Amino acid sequence: MDASNHMNTPLKVFLIAAAGLATVWAEPPAFQGYEKLIRVTPLLKTQQTSAGQPIVYPAVAKPEVTAALVEIPPGAETGWHQHPYPCYAFLLSGKLSVELADGTVHEATAGQALVESVGLAHNGKNTGTEMVKLVMFVTGEAGQPFTIKEAAPAK
């Protein structure tokens, strides 16, 4: 006869709960769905954009996720623009400076992740000597642009 059949019910419940808690405490909750051999390295976890805005998910009729590779040659600029939807990026190479209309400048380099501002005019510039390559992800709406050209702010 199996020894577990002789264990009283409260003790069984305690042992099962303890084993479950040990598993939860042993690994971060976000990555519990992966096998132990898989390495997950968090790159960014934030509740605000690079401009300090709170993250707000768009309520749209036809949600669409876009992933794009953006390449900016040394010295080149994106031109003043804004994003009506949340955009997230990971820099693969280069050095990117992003200027906001108020003159604030945010810098990012290869290996960094960022959340772009939403609804704020900004201009990205490659201030390094190598090609800026970034992977950009957008949570937008099908059939709608996720980048809108803006006039340069008056200085």
What can you tell me about this protein's structure?
The protein is mainly β. A 4-stranded antiparallel beta sheet has the order 1-8-3-6, with no helix packed on it. The protein has a 3-stranded antiparallel beta sheet with strand order 5-4-7, with no helix packed on it. The chain is 12% helix and 32% strand. A hairpin with a 4-residue loop joins strand 4 and strand 5. The chain contains 1 helix and 9 strands; from the N terminus they run αβββββββββ. About 7% of the residues have low confidence. It has a domain of 87 residues: Jelly Rolls (Sandwich), CATH 2.60.120.
CATH superfamily of the domain at 63-149: Jelly Rolls
Structural class determined from secondary elements: mainly beta
Assigned CATH architecture of the domain at 63-149 = Sandwich
Task: Report the major sheet.
Answer: 4 strands, antiparallel
Measured between the Cα atoms of the first and last residue, the distance is: 85 Å
Number of strand segments: 9
Q: How many helical stretches?
A: 1
Q: Secondary-structure element sequence?
A: HEEEEEEEEE
